[in-house]
Fold each of these.
Amino acid sequence: MSPATAIGSPLSLPIAIDLAAHDDFEAWRDHARSLLRARIPPGQVIWNEPGQYGDLLASASGATFSEKRIHITVSRDFLELGEKVICHNDSARFALLYRLLWRHQQHPRLLQDVADADVRRAQAMAKEVRRDIHKMRAFVRFRLVEEGKGEERYVAWFEPEHHIIRANVRFFVDRFANMRWSILTPDLSIHWDGALLSETAGATARDAPQGDPVEDMWTRYYASIFNPARVKVGAMLKEMPRRYWKNMPETAIVPSLIAGARARESAMIAAGEDVFPTQFPESLGKVAEEIAACRRCSIGCKGTRAVSGDGALDGGVMVIGEQPGDEEEKAGKPFVGPAGQLLNRYLDEADIDRGTLYVTNAVKHFKFEPRGPRRIHQRPTAGEIDTCRFWLDAERSILKPRTIVALGASAARAVLGRTPSVQNERGRPIALPGGTQLWITVHPSFLLRAADTIQKREKENFLADWVKIREAAFPPMV
Ligand code: URA
C-alpha cells in the first residue's frame, strides 16, 4: 500500500498528494515512486504544497491504492535536475517533475531532448534556482548582535526568490563554521551555534539588526571610492538586482550616487579629487581593533586572528603584501614567515633597513583551505581585496606615506582599484593623488615558486626594483 494519501480510485479520480515541505526532494520522490508503481498517470495527480489549499483535500482523503512491483528508471541527470527544480517557487514544479519521471520510463534519454517543452521548463527552473543560490551566497550580510554573557551572534536578513535556504545551508556552515550565526528569511530561519544547525519559523526584516557602529563609516567610504565615470547601471543591476540592495549597507547609497553621478564627475574633474574624503578611525590602534572585529567578507567571518600593519610610523614608506600566511596569523605580525624572510634578505641587499618601513597587507585575514593539519594559502578574490581596501585606506590616511611599495598584483589592486600587470608596470613610480609614489614589484613568494629557468633573472629584477625604490624613497643626505 502506498504511503501517499489518495482520494478515490486509481482508475480515474484525482489523487491528492499533501507534501510536508516545499523543498523536500526525497519526500517527493517517495510519493512519485508509489504513484508510478500504482500506474497513476500524471494528469490524475494533484500536488499540494504546505499551506496551499489548507486541509480541504486532505480532509477528504484516506483512500489508498495498490502498487505493483515494477522497475523504475531514474538517471543521475534527473536526480540532479529534480533537486534544483524542487526548490523553485512555481507550484507546478511537482507535477512537472512527475510528468518527466513518468515519460522518462519510456524514454530514458528524454532529458537530452532540449526541444521538449517539459525538459526546457525544468532546465529553466533549475537555472533560476542556481542563480538564487548564488545571489544568497553573494548578498547575505551579517551584522553583529551581542547576546549577553560575552556571547556574539551574526544575524542576516535575506529574502530569497525560491525555496533555497536548506539547499544552501551547507555553504554557510562550511564558510562560517567558527561563528554563531542566524539567517532569517520570510519562510524559514536557520541558526548555527558552531556545532549544530537548527530551524525556526520565518521572520520579518524587523527581527534582524539594522546596522553596527562602523557601518556608517563604511557607507561613507563606499561613497568616497564610488567612481561616477565608471557607472554602468545595466551591468550593475544584472549582477546585483535591486531587490537585494536594501539589505546591503554599501548599496543603500547607490541610487543617490547614480542620480548624482554626472554632476559629481564634472565636479571631480574641475576640483581634483580629495585623497580620502572618508572619516576613518583616528588612530592605528583603533584601526587594528576594528580590523580584528571585521566580518565584512567571508575571510574575516572565519574568525581567525587578523594581522594589521606593523613597523615604522614616521618613515614615509609603506610596503603592502597580499595577506598574512599561516605563520603571520599565529604571530599576529605581517611578513614573519618564509616570504618575509626572503623579503628581509633583499631589503638587506638593497641596503634598506626594514625597521624604517611600515609593512602591511591588502587583506588582513588569512585565507586558507584546511588540508589535514595544514592550512593551504588561497588567493583572495578581487571582491575580498576591494572590501578590505577600507582598512588599507584607513592606514594610509593616518600614516600618509610618501612612498608605497605594492608586492604583487593583489597589493597593487588594493591601491589602484584595478588589477595591473605587474611585469608591465614595475620598476617605475606611479603618481597617486596627493603626491604619493607607488612602486609595483613582484611578491617574494613568486620568487620562491618561480621555475629554475627564470629564477635567477627574477631575483635580479626584484633586487633592481628595491635599489630604485631606495634611491627614490631614501635619497642620500648631502
Ligand atoms: N605574504 C604576504 O603577502 N603577507 C604576509 O604578511 C606574509 C606573506
Note: The chain has 18 helices and 15 strands.
Amino acid sequence: MKILSGIQPSGKLHIGNYFGMMKTMISQMENSELYVFIVDLHALTSVHDRNRLSQGTLEAAADFLALGLDPEKCTFWVQSDVPEVCELTWILSTLTPMGLLERCHSYKDKVAKGLHASHGLFSYPVLMAADILLYQAEQVPVGKDQKQHLEVARDIAQKFNNEFGETFVLPEPAISEKTAIVPGIDGQKMSKSYDNTIPIFLEGKPLKKRVMAIQTDATPVEEPKDPDSCSLYQMLSLFASADRLAEIHELYVKGGAAYGYLKLELLELISERFAEARSKKQLLLDDPHELRAILAKGAEKAREKAMVTLDLVRDRVGIKY
Ligand code: ADP
Ligand code: TRP
C-alpha cells in the first residue's frame, strides 16, 4: 500500500498534528510504501517571512525524525525540492472547475480569519492534488479538516483519467475517528493558525501555562460533568492509560473531577510522553548539515518517482513531442 501525507511548516507542530497525522504515518513505516513531506510551498500561502519559513521547515523535519520516522524506511523530503509538482499543478489546474475550488471550506475559513485571499490560497487544493497524484498514493492519513481537499484530489484525478485515459490512482483519505479533531486550549480545532495549540515539544513553564489555560466550564468539583463535551477530557484520552482514563471518566460522570488537578496530570503526561523525542530533536537541530543531507537524499528518491508520473502525464496531454 502506498501511503502519503504532508504537513505545513507554518508554525510549531502541535499535538493535534501529532495525533491527527504524524503518529499514524510513523506507525505505517514497517508495512507500507510511505511518503512523508514538508509542504513549504503550501505554507507560502500564509507565511511571508523568510526566516520563519526556512527555520520552520528544518524544525518540522526534525520533529518527524525525533518522533521516530526513519528516513531509510520511507521517502521523506521537502516539497519544493521536487519542482515537478509545480508543473503537474499547472496541468491539473487547466482541468479543475472553478466551482470545485469555490466550494472549499478551508479557503473561506482562512479568508474569514484574515488570511490574504491570494490566488495561491484559492488554488491550494490543486497543489495538494498534485502532491498526492504525482506519487500515485493510495491512502492519505489526515485529520478531518482535510477530507474535502482529498475529495477535490479524487475529482481532479477522475476528470484527468476521463479526458486523457487511465493515469492516476484515486486516493482514499484515512481518518481515524478518535483523533479526527483534537481540540485546542480554547475548545476549537487545535490549529497553528488559531494560536490555541499545545506544541509537541513545549516544556517547562510555557507548557504549564498552555495546559492550565485549557478552557473548562464552571461546574463545581462534586457535580457530574459531561466528558464528551470537555476539551480537557478529550486531551486526557489521548495520553492517559486505558485504566486511568476509565477512572477519570467515572469522576466526570459521578462527580469529583477537579479540573485543576486533572490539568496537572495532563501536564505530566505530555512532558513524559515526549521527553525522549525532545532530546533527539535538539541533537538534530544542533547539526543542520546532517538534517539537510537527509532531506536532500529523500528529495532525490521522491524525484525519481515524480518524474515517472510526470513523464506519463506530459505524454498523455501532448506536451511531449
Ligand atoms: P494546522 O491547522 O495546525 O495548520 P495543518 O493544516 O498543517 O495543521 O495540518 C497537518 C495535519 O495535521 C493534517 O493532516 C491535519 O488534518 C492534521 N491536523 C491539524 N490539526 C489537527 C487537529 N486539531 N486534530 C486532528 N488533526 C489535525
Ligand atoms: N493541506 C494539508 C494540511 O494543511 C497539507 C498537505 C499538503 C497535504 N499536501 C498534502 C496533506 C498532501 C496530505 C497530502 O494539512
Note: Residues 203 and 271 are 7 Å apart (CA to CA).
